[in-house]
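Slack export, channel: ligand-projects

TW: morning all. Re-posting the request from yesterday since it got buried. We need the structure predicted with the small molecule present, not the apo form. The ligand is zinc ion; the SMILES is in the block with the sequence. No rush, but it would help planning for next week.
GE: picking it up
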Amino acid sequence: MLTHTVEEGPLLNRFRTLWDEIAPIGRDPGSGGYLRFALTEPELRLREWFREQARLRGMPVTTDGNGNLFAWWGDPDAGDAVLTGSHFDSVPHGGAYDGPLGIVSALLAVDELRAAGVAPARPLVVGAFVEEEGGRFGVPCLGSRLLTGQITPDRAGALRDAAGVSFAEALGDRPTGADPALLSRLAAFVELHVEQGRALVDQDAPVAVASAIWPHGRWRFDFTGEGNHAGTTRMADRRDPMLTYAFTVLAANKEARLRDAHATVGRVAVEPNATNAIPSRVTGWLDARAAEPDTLTGLVEAVRTKAAERARRDGTEVTLTEESATPLVAFDGGLADRLAGLLDAPVLPTGAGHDAGVLAAHVPTAMIFVRNPTGVSHSPAESATDADCAAGVTALARVLEELTR
Ligand SMILES: [Zn+2]
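GE: finished. pasting the full token output, ligand included:
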């Protein structure tokens, strides 16, 4: 269902037309949320849609050998390019806006600039990053980490999804990894993203500019005990890792609250996962975030200590493995101030990770947030009004015009 022309008419209508094209792709009819995992059929359709939209705009598409796509307005080799864009993939049953809004807005911003007769003095490139959420292969921002060399091609290529398919197999090739030549041709990256909290509702502003991303990471707790019969094993004789797991979840919640930090255990695996069996093993994944690196370290250490203490009481064992860690990202202060001034927009920190956070160590980077009236994200309840999305496009177009002057 591809369009064959670039739509004309009021921006609000053009936003809705483009949005409606991708809205059904990967939507689960039961939850209303999205199952757009990287390089699976729905996400591949979105990537095909992206290529078609780029073709309609006369923007050749290149890849970096890691699964990231780039559509160019201007010569890809010219250097000093301004990159904008986001990602198509979702968390399980995620919202419609997290990711795709940044790509759709970027395409519409190109249309706005062209309609206004703006001729950028340097290349403008719209990017679609692969596996931002880590929903399929477990490592968030995998595409941008590969591009910047934060993960090796061997390690990334060997990551496997729940069905045992490796990232290299899904990609069709071993990822090529760091591309310093491409990074050196980028003068700036601006990622537009739906806001993932309620800060803008309270400020009565349709868009904001990001100041920083909290340090955050993912830790895996493996609790092991003794699998046994639920009916015949006396309570006193049990070594039940579910108890240690449950206590650890509550401890994570308490320790995070004490520090004004965030801790979430949103994923768990149980073996043998039978109603009438005491589990032999429980694996839980902790997502932890805090405003300061020391706070985050202290939080994770406190949870580790409490889990270990509880394991002694339960006769179980627990190990903790760091699966990913992302340091505090302070976005380019000069760029953020410049954008906030240009847009007359508030400046906000965020607890969410983004490809922009990964790119920020290599390229002057900024983010624009679009108001989310529910404040909910990573859920079907995530939302943004068409009017605010159009305001986001207008803001992005102004920023891109300024940066490509
Ligand atoms: Zn996102």
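GE: first-pass observations. The chain has 13 helices and 15 strands. The pocket of zinc ion is lined by residues 87, 98-99, 132, 193, 354 (CB under 6 Å).
TW: perfect, thank you
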